[in-house]
Amino acid sequence: MRRQWILPGGMVAAMVVLTPTVIHTRSTSWAVGWSAILPGVVGLLMLLALVEHLTSPADRAESDLREG
């Protein structure tokens, strides 16, 4: 179950690392767009983690239960 978070977590980590580079570019639209997308992606991942945490084991698929 944890493997499904590797790609989104890696993407967020890459965005956090690249944020100073994007902000220092001369393109204001890029910086504003980047600054709007990053908190949105982090919020979405937190919401998905909360939903997964609150979902009872009876509601989960059988294949998900075998992995954990």
Task: Offer a concise description of the structure.
The chain is built from three helices and no strands. With 68 residues, the chain is mainly alpha-helical.
The tally of beta strands, per DSSP, is: 0
Low-confidence stretches: none
Task: Report strand %.
Answer: under 5%
Could you state the order of secondary-structure elements as H and E? HHH
Question: How many helices does DSSP assign?
Answer: 3
Give the mean pLDDT: 77
Overall SS class: mainly alpha
Multimeric status of the protein: single chain
The major beta sheet can be summarized as: none
- End-to-end Cα distance, whole Å, is 6 Å
Q: What gyration radius follows from the Cα positions, in whole Å?
A: 16 Å
Question: In which range does the helix fraction lie?
Answer: over 70%
Shape: elongated
What does this 3D model show about the protein?
- By secondary structure, the chain is mainly α.
- Helices cover 75% and strands 0% of the residues.
- It contains three helices and no strands.
- Helix 1 packs antiparallel against helix 2.
- The longest helix is centred in the middle third of the chain and has 27 residues, at 28-54.
- The model has no long low-confidence stretch (mean pLDDT 77).
